[in-house]
Specification:
Rossmann fold, 6-stranded parallel beta sheet
Length: 495
């Protein structure tokens, strides 16, 4: 199968969140299964193309943008440790900027930037002679490509059999924009913009809505989130649209690339370990506390539980709960806390304050640091994810593999991946709470801490966690089945 993938992020080249990891892991897995994969990614400023082994190719790709044609240079390479090809779209006027989306509010021309990516995705496939069976697009950034395929490209021999699949990673980001800005760019006549039409959304254009209605099949990143976005306010105003497409929408749980995330062979860990050598996990904890947190060796060896977080500092991640719950946890329960993250300024300031006030208990790194992310997840005893909503979440799956016990709010993919520990039967591998309150978070952490070091429960908990299998291969196989359904739909429509 030929799979053409368009996304705004791809690890390790450009990453702002889990989208980058999932797109890369799926592409790598499909290629390993014998499929031909081409991933298209903008050449952002942070990507040193020659350093990653990319080569410039000719000719440049011409991209229709309304009444004009714009051009981009192409760089071709491969995903590390994979046969999956990657094409970088080099358009400096759109992508030679700091970061990916422009923090915190986003670049004002993000609509135009990602419309350009969506159209270029289809044009460069023709330049490269790549005839896709599947066009797989992700979130609003490339969602409109599904409609562009249907409207402008499917009649051509190269795309005649192509089916489109849109994966919604987070429905909160929709690409809502001014129709006067984007309809001319897309070549859409004004007569098609009216209430109830594909293009109209409360007087604006919603690029994600367009993709949802145009794609042959839809997926989101966990079964629970697939239900939530159709039946609750987590649909962010698109519940009706998603319900209309309900028969074509499936929830496929994201998976983990265990070649990258495995304590036995993690290149970032000072001490590799496994379920049979949990003493190695304790050694990683001690090394983190001495080398990064700066504690004396004797103090680092004290049996004090370490709570970890590797997260974006946003409302979605439940950080507002920690404003009220974290200091009492540190003060009254005596825990240590390690954070790696960045985001809203007032949240960053809060954690800096705690780190300065409780310098021997609270350790904070504001920013992005991949090696440190691995080390915190390996060293922590518990992982906090008190999310307001969570489409899937990958960090809790990483944590399970490392024997780090998740404490999560039972929502979205967290509900699908974390099962409460039952001390009577000895089953389960985490702790969940339902109410979105600081009291519920505090109480659940307090209950979880009662098992810390208490045998046989503590070892059983960690062994249960490390036995969980959320492999990306399972996800990749489910996507391939969805792709087959999309192709069947296209064949039926042609017939």
């Amino acid at each position: 199968m030929n799979i053409l993938v368009g996304a705004a992020e791809l690890a390790p080249f450009a990453k702002a969140g889990g989208l980058a990891d999932v797109v890369a892991a799926l592409a790598r897995q499909w290629a390993a299964m014998g499929h031909r994969v081409l991933v298209v990614l903008p050449k952002y400023r942070m990507i040193d193309a020659p350093e990653w082994g990319f080569q410039p190719i000719e000719p440049a790709v011409a991209v229709p943008m309304g009444q004009t044609v714009e051009y981009a240079r192409l760089w071709l390479g491969t995903l590390p440790q994979s046969a999956a090809r990657v094409c970088l779209l080099d358009a400096p006027h759109y992508f030679d900027r700091e970061g990916i989306y422009g923090n915190p509010e986003g670049y004002p021309d993000n609509d135009r930037r990602y419309i350009f990516l969506s159209r270029a995705l289809l044009e460069l496939a023709q330049v490269l002679g790549f005839s896709p069976d599947i066009l797989h697009v992700h979130d609003y950034h490339t969602a409109v490509a599904a409609e562009l395929l249907r409207r402008f490209y499917r009649r051509t021999p190269q795309f005649y059999k192509t089916a489109s699949v849109l994966t919604v990673h987070n429905v909160a980001f929709q690409g809502i924009t001014d129709p006067a800005r984007v309809l001319p760019l897309l070549g859409i006549p004004w007569e098609e913009f009216y209430p109830g039409s594909l293009w109209e959304y409360y007087g604006a254009v919603n690029l994600l809505k367009v993709g949802i209605l145009a794609a042959d099949k839809l997926s989101t990143v966990s079964p629970s989130y697939a239900w939530e976005i159709r039946h609750t306010a987590l649909g962010e105003g698109l519940q009706g649209v998603l319900s209309v497409r309900g028969a074509d929408l499936v929830g496929i749980l994201n998976g983990v690339d265990y070649e990258e995330w495995s304590p036995e062979r993690d290149r970032y860990l000072p001490v590799p370990y496994s379920a049979e050598f949990l003493a190695g996990k304790e050694l990683n904890k001690q090394r983190l506390l001495t080398e990064w947190a700066g504690l004396p060796e004797a103090e680092a060896q004290a049996p004090v539980p370490l709570l970890g977080m590797v997260t974006r500092l946003t409302d979605q991640k439940g950080i507002d709960l920690l404003l009220h719950a974290l200091e009492p946890l540190v003060q009254h329960l005596g825990v240590r806390f390690a954070l790696l993250g960045s985001g809203a300024g007032h949240y960053e300031s809060f954690f800096r304050y705690l780190a300065s006030r409780y310098s021997r208990q609270v350790f904070v790194y504001i920013g992005y640091n991949e090696p440190l992310a691995h080390r915190i997840i390996a060293a922590a005893d518990f992982l906090l994810m008190p999310s307001r909503y969570e489409p899937c979440g990958l960090t809790q799956m990483y944590a399970l593999r490392y024997g780090t016990i998740p404490i999560v709010r039972a929502v979205g993919g967290l509900r699908d991946t974390v099962r409460d520990y039952d001390p009577i039967s000895g089953t389960g591998w985490g702790f969940c709470f339902a109410d979105y309150t600081p009291e519920a978070l505090f109480g659940t952490v307090q209950y979880a801490l009662s098992f810390y070091g208490a045998e046989p429960h503590w070892e059983r908990l960690r062994r249960n966690a490390m036995a969980c299998d959320f492999s990306i291969r399972r996800s990749a196989e489910q996507y391939l089945q969805l792709f087959e359904w999309a192709l069947e739909k296209v064949r039926a429509e042609r017939a």
